[in-house]
Amino acid sequence: MSYFRKHYHEPGTAPGTLVQRSPATTSPLSMHLTDYTEEGVEELDLDAVQDCVRYLERGSKTWLQINGAVSPDTLRQLGDLFDLHDLALEDVLNAGQRPKIDSYENQLFVTAAFPMLNDGVLELVQISLFVGENYLICFCPLAQDPFDPIRKRIRQTNGRRFTSRGIDYLLYALLDYIVDSGFPVLESFGDDLEVLESELLAHPDRQTLAAIHRLKRELLLMRRILWPQREMIASAMRSEDHRIKPETLVYLRDCMDHSVQIIELLESFRDMATSMLDLYLSAISNRTNDTMRVLTIIATIFIPLTFIVGVYGMNFGNPDNPWAMPELYARYGYPLVWGAMIVITGGLVWYFRRRRWL
Amino acid sequence: MSYFRKHYHEPGTAPGTLVQRSPATTSPLSMHLTDYTEEGVEELDLDAVQDCVRYLERGSKTWLQINGAVSPDTLRQLGDLFDLHDLALEDVLNAGQRPKIDSYENQLFVTAAFPMLNDGVLELVQISLFVGENYLICFCPLAQDPFDPIRKRIRQTNGRRFTSRGIDYLLYALLDYIVDSGFPVLESFGDDLEVLESELLAHPDRQTLAAIHRLKRELLLMRRILWPQREMIASAMRSEDHRIKPETLVYLRDCMDHSVQIIELLESFRDMATSMLDLYLSAISNRTNDTMRVLTIIATIFIPLTFIVGVYGMNFGNPDNPWAMPELYARYGYPLVWGAMIVITGGLVWYFRRRRWL
Amino acid sequence: MSYFRKHYHEPGTAPGTLVQRSPATTSPLSMHLTDYTEEGVEELDLDAVQDCVRYLERGSKTWLQINGAVSPDTLRQLGDLFDLHDLALEDVLNAGQRPKIDSYENQLFVTAAFPMLNDGVLELVQISLFVGENYLICFCPLAQDPFDPIRKRIRQTNGRRFTSRGIDYLLYALLDYIVDSGFPVLESFGDDLEVLESELLAHPDRQTLAAIHRLKRELLLMRRILWPQREMIASAMRSEDHRIKPETLVYLRDCMDHSVQIIELLESFRDMATSMLDLYLSAISNRTNDTMRVLTIIATIFIPLTFIVGVYGMNFGNPDNPWAMPELYARYGYPLVWGAMIVITGGLVWYFRRRRWL
Amino acid sequence: MSYFRKHYHEPGTAPGTLVQRSPATTSPLSMHLTDYTEEGVEELDLDAVQDCVRYLERGSKTWLQINGAVSPDTLRQLGDLFDLHDLALEDVLNAGQRPKIDSYENQLFVTAAFPMLNDGVLELVQISLFVGENYLICFCPLAQDPFDPIRKRIRQTNGRRFTSRGIDYLLYALLDYIVDSGFPVLESFGDDLEVLESELLAHPDRQTLAAIHRLKRELLLMRRILWPQREMIASAMRSEDHRIKPETLVYLRDCMDHSVQIIELLESFRDMATSMLDLYLSAISNRTNDTMRVLTIIATIFIPLTFIVGVYGMNFGNPDNPWAMPELYARYGYPLVWGAMIVITGGLVWYFRRRRWL
Amino acid sequence: MSYFRKHYHEPGTAPGTLVQRSPATTSPLSMHLTDYTEEGVEELDLDAVQDCVRYLERGSKTWLQINGAVSPDTLRQLGDLFDLHDLALEDVLNAGQRPKIDSYENQLFVTAAFPMLNDGVLELVQISLFVGENYLICFCPLAQDPFDPIRKRIRQTNGRRFTSRGIDYLLYALLDYIVDSGFPVLESFGDDLEVLESELLAHPDRQTLAAIHRLKRELLLMRRILWPQREMIASAMRSEDHRIKPETLVYLRDCMDHSVQIIELLESFRDMATSMLDLYLSAISNRTNDTMRVLTIIATIFIPLTFIVGVYGMNFGNPDNPWAMPELYARYGYPLVWGAMIVITGGLVWYFRRRRWL
């Protein structure tokens, strides 16, 4: 996982320049069009950008979903067809934008961050949306379209809920989906925190530390991106753009609520992760203290004994005095001493293993 | 205690969808209606939602209290009867909402968090309130209705205080009750802090650390939920909704005051808990230092002595020289040395026990 | 010192309920009235609340000071007499309010926190003030009235300074006194910090740590209460209440200045206290390191020597070779070795005592 | 790298005083003029300030780029020619200004900080810009002009993009270039962070600590300068100065976006760097604990053994008893013991080396 | 250096009371008057306050500089002469005010903090300024007037720059001087930080810790005072007082810029000082770890060797076996062993000294 994930042009490049990105994201391009009116829903996969022209000219609402890596050429064609602003098109290519909403003359341009877990690793996929009078274009760099549930809702209700409202309701539905995708991610992070916490209180080790650090880093990344997302929704609500209709505001408010809740959860998770680092440090200090204590006790007990033993060299040995080290004259004295020493060593090793020191 | 406690729909679910929650909260449903006019108070337990219709049509004020787990069906019936907004109904089911106040056309929707201690563990129960022209519906997932004291006040004053004021006064009374319930919780946390502090300064151990961590976590959770509660009351005061009457503002201001005070207490408690973690770390360092010092002193004293003793092997022994280790030739020399060593060992063990090192 | 010091009603109690507090603060009640006009000052001790009626009816300014524990009955009488608001009266009884200013129809209600040191322990006494057209009622739970200097100023100038201005000037004088009482408290805390700092840099011990913790806690408490006090004065200045006259604003600005200065001092004191905890931790680490170093040096020097000595068992003893341990054959060899060992032990004990390790 | 990098006049110097800076930055002066109209672009190197007069008088747009160290004399000549404000000229000489935008009567004065890495060390070069009706003067203390890409864009498009817009578009192009130069710097810092992180988790040493400290310091410096840069662009957007035309605002918004993104990256990098310091501390504590454990285990095992061995002085030796230390009487007993000891020493040294302790 | 440096009246003292301060600052009083018109500059030392009356009555601008300790009597005379407000006069005496600007009817009252280093110790001298229609009175408690450079500028330009502008330009010149005096102080602190940093990375000791603490403390103090100074200048700029003329605003903006820059430097210095404390802690931990490692290695190597040696008591000695400890029978065996031990001790002492452990 890299710290710097922003695509940017060489400084000094003219604004609105469209350059082919490095082929890191080579998901194949696919275009899907969903056209709905009060009468019904029509869906088709597009081969060429121009195929959508005839849908635009009818009074219907048209949702053009473009998945995978878009080439600068395709973007330029789309730009000409829909009269999209150069700066906005540039932002579609340069992934890693802050979520934002920009009002241009002919369309609203929205970038949002779609949070998902990929093998447990957080990814924040940039979704770019153009909203015109009666069309919405949505760019998603993933090969797999995540917005199928929305499409299903359009189909199921035969488009009634969506057709009776403007294209901004579709924008809300997509944003709501993007925002709510944060909940399962946070739930997973919450589970991680609980696991780490119980590890910390039971037997913390080096892996625990690395795991806390990794989690903290992902929380930081997520917060950096989702904080402006909240602002983006807030400014969509405040915006006086005529393309966002007053009757959609109550839905955006709901979406805003969720966004704020996610931020607050993130903040408290970060606080807990920081607090866990302290806990880890305390646990290590505690353990150092424990080892010290054992060493101190054993050493302190034996040091004076060894001194006394040294004083006399234990030259008490005198075969005639039965009180003076008779062990020295016993036949198996020497092997017995070795036996005693082996038993003590084994006992200590067992004890250390049980205390997880060895 | 889990970190993530929010109920949420599968992302992409249509707004306002009501789905049966997992059966975790299976408190049985009970409905209680309190109807009051200037003339008197009427109370009854409802079996079916429809039973409250006739109370609504009179000019009286009606408080419908619904305790326990509500089924989506019941919610839908209530929604149709009172013309409640779908998004609000969804929030009633999806517990774990941030406290908020939403103005809909036909009603005000308020969610609040009711703090309580369950066996010493903090719980924040979501209370959902709908306020119409002359009715208030209050959802509480607990089996046991916590709002009996309010009902008693309505009864005692024969409803005069409540009837002479609008239904918003009942809203205030409930919110005030919810907010003030924070005080006993904080008082209990304050007591915990004091106990922990005295433990820390006397003889901190691993349990103390875990306890501070747990307390900090609960304070963090409580703050995350109660902070928006303060904002909710503030926006109720600022709101230009005609359902909140100017004469109720002075009461809401009082409630706001308490809410702010709780937040400030929470913040200072969190500061103290953080400071205690530092104190714990210092205490551990102190103890490590103490053990080190004892080891150092004893070892440092005996090391040169043992060296000297080693040098001479103590081969001074010479039966003819009364100054040269006469102990070696004493009859009970050897047992006496053993005796001395046992006494020393016992003394040290006793000393370590007294210092709580063993 | 307890963490939670707020008095509160049982949640669900009706607003404005006056209940006898627990008898913790049983300072006897005393009432003192100061009445002043351009002509002169009149002072008397009141036995009953009603005695002040005749002063109210004249055009004079009347200051009613009530010290000690007020009973709910007395409060209710005062409330009826002066038409005081129920919520305000409740706040007089429930000590531990945040400082605030509330505008009611017939009076301004102000609560302030009077900081004082009681045997070195911070106490924040709640002063409650009602300001009407030409009267001011001041409640102070202390037996001893702290506002004598103000009364003296009224008397000394024969009331001229006070009489030529409205009753709000008296309010200012009292608030100014309350705010300025923070300076000696902070001066004492500043002295404590200096003492602790020099202790820390010289020879920190466990008491130092506890003392820093205690100080930090008191600073935290003081800040929690005095921060809203600043806001209270600010909102008194901004208030459009006709009872605060424009010519008093220049004085309130001065009072505000002092309040801000106290907050800034508090904040920097807290910063220093936190920094001192770090310093303490460093000092402990330093000391551990020192002990370790001594142990390491002595042990490391003697370990190889002891090994060598062990190798030869020092069996060089050979009475015929004058170079081979002649000490063994000296008459007083053995006692001399004991002597040497006792001298070394004594020297080390003396050295450890001097370094304060023993 | 020094902490204090601001050039300032002796306090008390009259405002607008131009004094020769110390010769630290002695890059030679060079002046380059780019003049463009709808018809075409003209470029030339200037020898004397006066040479640009005739370009100013035409209706064309003129960009005067001045690189290297400017003498007070040259500044004064420019000031007279273009009627530049004294305070602004002073700021050109006193490098280390906060980025800001000042509206003077005859020109807009902008200072910006151009971030670059010089052998891995962050430098923030002050760029000063004067924007008049149809001219822009840009001061850059570097010998090498960094703005060649912009000049190329003017040339390439034959100035069309630039000539069709006002001189404020050139200002935007330069600011955009300056802001975007932050991205490669941050990318490099991000790489450093990743390297440090993996070092920390693998085998942290003293160099790692110094490197984290250095990085944190550079991030702090960069943040201190780039934070006001964001404000500067924001106030350029809000400014009602007629020299910034509404059609440029959409471009400045883009530039603002980048600026905010850089700040947010910086903040999260700083958070990570701080968190890494904690990680380092934990790693050290961990390692201390490890060494302690090994010492404890080995010492604790051998201490009782050595005691036992001492007790018997191992005087079992008795040539007649084959069970009593027959090794003592073996011919090569002594050299074999030495051999065993050398093998043990070698083994331990090898073990310590492998654990990187030696 | 004391933590609490505010002079304050006994709480309850009437506002505007002037009391002789304790004689801590007994710099002798001196008064200097600078009077300037378009025609010329006149300067004289005043003996009595009344001597300045005739300058006030002319249309000229008059700057009255009062250095040293002012007695309450002198202040009262000045107050009567210039009609200065009581509260302002009190603030002149009670040093340690927050920088502020107060608009009174007849004059503007400004207090500012003049930062200077006295033997390396930060001092923040309170400068009090009264600005009337055509006079400025400046109080400075230092014996030595710091504002000579300003006076020189008035003289040099023969007062033209100053006379063509109002008295507010003199106010600006003084404030600018006061603010800019922060730069050399910060430069010195920056140097201190660099020295401390290189000490920390090379060989940190107890003095380093105390020095960081002292620096942090001074930075904290400076920030506490200079933060309101920034606000003071900002409110001078916003102020609608007619005594501050619009043409002076551009200069005040410059002064504000410097003030903000100083605050930002202070903040980043504080951040670095805090980070250095962490660095110190890491360095100490590192060192503890190092000592531990050496002890562990040496002890661990010798412990088993000593055990083996103990087992055999090294009773191999057998004069007949040339392989069995022939050293015991060599003539100079014993002195040679002593020699070896002395060499080892010397070597270790030398090694410890080189590593700075001894």
Automatic annotation (TrEMBL), chains A, B, C, D, E:
<keyword id="KW-0812">Transmembrane</keyword>
<dbReference type="InterPro" id="IPR045861">
    <property type="entry name" value="CorA_cytoplasmic_dom"/>
</dbReference>
<keyword id="KW-0406">Ion transport</keyword>
<comment type="similarity">
    <text>Belongs to the CorA metal ion transporter (MIT) (TC 1.A.35) family.</text>
</comment>
<keyword id="KW-0460">Magnesium</keyword>
<dbReference type="Pfam" id="PF01544">
    <property type="entry name" value="CorA"/>
</dbReference>
<feature type="transmembrane region" description="Helical">
    <location>
        <begin position="294"/>
        <end position="312"/>
    </location>
</feature>
<keyword id="KW-0472">Membrane</keyword>
<dbReference type="InterPro" id="IPR045863">
    <property type="entry name" value="CorA_TM1_TM2"/>
</dbReference>
<comment type="function">
    <text>Mediates influx of magnesium ions.</text>
</comment>
<keyword id="KW-1003">Cell membrane</keyword>
<feature type="region of interest" description="Disordered">
    <location>
        <begin position="1"/>
        <end position="24"/>
    </location>
</feature>
<keyword id="KW-0813">Transport</keyword>
<protein>
    <recommendedName>
        <fullName>Magnesium transport protein CorA</fullName>
    </recommendedName>
</protein>
<dbReference type="InterPro" id="IPR004488">
    <property type="entry name" value="Mg/Co-transport_prot_CorA"/>
</dbReference>
<feature type="transmembrane region" description="Helical">
    <location>
        <begin position="332"/>
        <end position="352"/>
    </location>
</feature>
<dbReference type="InterPro" id="IPR002523">
    <property type="entry name" value="MgTranspt_CorA/ZnTranspt_ZntB"/>
</dbReference>
<keyword id="KW-1133">Transmembrane helix</keyword>
